[in-house]
Write a structure and sequence with these properties.
seven-stranded mixed sheet, seven-stranded parallel sheet, 27% helix, homotetramer, alpha/beta, globular
Chain lengths: 340, 340, 340, 340
């Protein structure tokens, strides 16, 4: 059994890591850090963990890293880079925050409004989109998990960047996301009374995950690619649906995607003309992709659905840890979506 | 007091008509038809109507039309055209179904899969988008209320069709709608367990409201305009948000819309850069429109929010009836959105 | 037109007061206080108020009270008593907080954990359960609106206290409430992710509204009455359902309630054996009461449903203001429940 | 690997069986019957099952039972008894319907309004409340799973029936349940628009699970016990919370429950004074029980929370199958609750 710790164990992604890892046949949770809740048992913060044997939550500076194989860092962006720079140099790390996703520290400054605290680590960090960086992830010391919104769009678009089947200059991503992605901090904007029974966009054309789209799509295409991106907040907890409008033939696009993901354990491309629902991937590490031809010739609508807390964050993190530790990639990640 | 009847009073749009009209200072409900529920009091079907004095529900063929000034027809499409053709020739009608929206009967056959039963009425029917057909509506015998999805898109797009500020060939409408628009019929797809906690598209690139977009946008532009349209079903009851991606400068588009709607009592164009939420128009006849510049130059995202049962259907119907009967256009329609 | 002000206009009960009063034929909103949001227009806080002409929000100490007929105080408990003691001695006040509901200042200290700041006002304050204190309310300077949970239980129980049809020693109130009653403050416990898709009790056997049950039921019965009370938080915004288990014959209980409320404009007693739903009173000032005989002889289950923000708070407040100012009691309060 | 089949695989309990069993280390799904959906792959009915290797759905009369170790019958009550009587005499059966729960066929006639079709099987059927009938279940041919509402109440009450710590004549069960328990049939009453944003009771004092309470509580107590029972429908999918009002000391009741369940893998008794939430057992086989002392001496409120589809139905069914087949009782049932 490999020994792991979780830093930031009392947020939603921390809870999701616990949910997944506690049934993992190859990982053992050796330590948990959660500064504000230090001294509590995890089930005092998340009562659903009551039936598990887990270590008590500790303050970060009380953690003993000497015996660990890997640490998951589930802190918010801005907090993560300062914590990770303090970790022992040989300790392997899966970071769930945005702090090590952007390879260029000037981009980090631009999008996150602060200097990067650990630029020397940034250049060695690997972008954690498992299916596209498998080799690098397996060898990396530090893996930066993809943002949940970015992942949802990238699964549809990355295989198309080199296939020559769409117009790179005309990509619109209309994204619908549940509220758990906003985290467990107390904010008026995510109160039940403010979220339920309504829908609106947020951070239109300015969402920080644009930086990830820019970086990854341009890298794949070998030239600058800029998308239009409008995320919307929906009255549901888990799930992201990206509706992507492109110029290109649906049949060709579908073929590229179906071929690319034919052997991927977590990605399913639906038959041409079908489209997915988030409720059929909820609580799972699966991604469902669909392609529908528009009635206007030469235009296609691509849909991607995943669970933001699982494949969009903590499930992806475990998948990366599996790769890094030489465990079966799908270990602990095959649970079936919860429906209804 | 003008006397009105409602045919199809036991669906959601029928209930919404009752909710609005019972506080109307100029309308009196003289008769209600609802075949399956004939013999019941309205509050036996909708307990929230308990405190109102309303006529008993009757079968359609028992209605006495001799004394009526106007009838609202809230039947499903396909049922409405056969019922309306039986009404007295002088009776004025506001139809909430799709049966008289398409001026061309071959289009009706194409989109609705049946011959139109009353083509002779079709040519005199007026499309009920109040703010764009005021004069015709005031004079019409038969007004066909706009589809709720179509209205949401048209409010944003119609003023742009002649202003020359957008590219007519590149319009994408990503629409998010609540479930009450699907009506009160028992269907697996609209069960709580199937709708809550998830999102997916439906009728992608094939929704019947495309016929209304085609008809109205082309008419306004003076040439064929075809949009891309993907509606999505959301876990909420009331509300439609249209997110519309166009090529054009946000400032110019905002000016055209702000000027067009400056004197409209029910339409608000938010300051440039702001965008609306459906929860701030819920239960009201108001429409909120916002324009946001994309980070890519020359691209703009327009948002329209309205309540599908009010401005998208029954509120619109009362607004049209007000116009037809010479009553103040806003009578009974100024109730404030219910939040939260 | 009588001139009124609202203190605490940027919470949910403040917004609900604005929603109701702006269509009131006899009240005009002259001033609005909201310390944290001072300087904003109300629609910047509640975008649904966009289409109304309303004064700008001000700091409390900037308000001019000289010309006002009545002020609504929608501050939280604890804040209200210190503000109200500063108001001009002749100004009439409807307070929506708990600060003036308990006649005995030692009870206030016990339940709210602080000394009452204005005990001299407490002895003249009138409990604002409109249907039971009409005369006193009409004559009062200061009316303290009933707590939303307390009102829901009291409507079912108060008429029974003198009728001799139930056992006063065996009353169980199981209450289900929506989340808007918890207000608009940012708290983890009322986040969408924490409230939706689940249910649990809160403040079991310790909720502060117990003090109101004790006070009002004992006063009506002429002897101490103590109930068992367990409130539960439900994943909905508006609505309270009280399920009340008593010993007594359903027919007798139903008769007492039906007779008591026969002439009340806002209370409906359903036919014996029927029970209400909160969704059929949502957004309205109506209360629906039902009585069902248990299969065990001599036991009855009584149900009361109301909207916590309307009849449970701001609607009740307007009803009381109507009484105080000699306006028709139902003015501005007859809007029909919003369904669905 | 033991071979099992599921009859009625296209309802919610059927889907939940598939979700659980497909990760079961000791069970293999050999056949699936679903008459209306015969010929389809399971993922065509439940897209979340897309990534599993499962047999195609067949008509019941096409199933080959010769090689099976056990069959799960997930048909509605009324259909189940006629199907089960046709099964081979040696085949072991776990029935999820109500058809074999009541030992007395006259009770079945009374509560379900029809003659029992297989009374000869009824007398050998074992009531499937795993923790109370372990031995009988292990030896049984036919096990009838407990109703979800009944299970929720029985876990709190059964241990108290012989402990002498409560008054058997004064038990009130106020139950709150999610909508998935009503199944996947299309009904107006379970539409999203009819369920969300509201709450009401249903089948008050007349719910069929009363028959299970009567049977099991009386049997445990050794004398007739009759409870008051009012179930309520909540706007959530999964989860039941029973709030049970009894006469007895909280400390004593808590001790009895804590001792009874100390070694049970799926039952947790929270510390005295704490109470559970359904959201912390969602998607799991766990049951959380809490006891809170009322402020009135000698009265206690007991809370039980479970997931109606898992522990209340399909999880319970798998637990029983594990017992019957000599597999570890917790096999495939240890997944952690999904939160949020």
């Amino acid at each position: 059994m490999k020994k792991v710790a979780i830093i930031g164990a009392s947020g939603y992604t921390g809870a999701e890591l616990l949910r997944i890892i506690c049934l993992h046949p190859g990982l053992k949770i050796s330590a948990l850090a959660a500064d504000r809740n230090a001294g509590k048992h995890p089930h005092e913060v998340f009562p659903g963990l009551r039936n598990l044997e887990l270590p008590v939550l500790e303050k970060f500076d009380r953690l003993d890293f000497s015996d660990l194989d890997l640490v998951f860092c589930a802190l918010p962006h801005g907090a993560s880079h300062t914590v990770i720079r303090q970790l022992p140099a040989k300790l392997r790390i899966v970071d769930l925050s945005a702090d090590f996703r952007l390879r260029d520290k000037t981009q980090y400054l631009h999008w996150y409004g602060q200097e990067h605290a650990a630029p020397e680590l940034l250049q060695h960090a690997v972008y954690g989109l498992s299916e596209f960086y498998r080799g690098e992830i397996a060898a990396a010391r530090l893996v930066a998990c993809t943002g949940c919104n970015a992942a949802t769009g990238l699964y549809a678009l990355l295989p198309l960047m080199t296939a020559g089947v769409i117009d790179y200059g005309d990509i619109v991503i209309d994204l619908k996301t549940g509220v758990s992605g906003a985290g467990r901090a107390a904010k008026v904007a995510t109160l039940h009374s403010e979220v339920s029974e309504g829908v609106q966009a947020y951070n239109v054309a300015a969402h920080r995950h644009l930086a990830e789209f820019d970086q990854e799509l341009s890298r794949a295409a070998g030239k600058p690619v800029r998308v239009t991106f409008a995320p919307h907040l929906l009255p549901l907890n888990r799930g992201i649906l990206a509706t992507i409008y492109v110029r290109g033939e649906a049949g060709e696009i579908h073929s590229v995607l179906a071929e690319r993901y034919a052997d991927e354990p977590f990605l399913s491309v639906l038959p041409l003309g079908q489209h997915p629902s988030t409720r059929h991937v909820r609580g799972s590490n699966y991604v469902h992709i669909g392609c529908v031809a528009d009635r206007r010739k030469g235009r296609t609508i691509i849909f991607t659905a995943l669970d933001n807390l699982t494949k969009g964050s903590s499930g992806q993190a475990v998948q990366n840890a599996n790769l890094m530790l030489g465990l079966p990639e799908t270990a602990a990640l095959q649970s079936v979506p919860l429906f209804p």
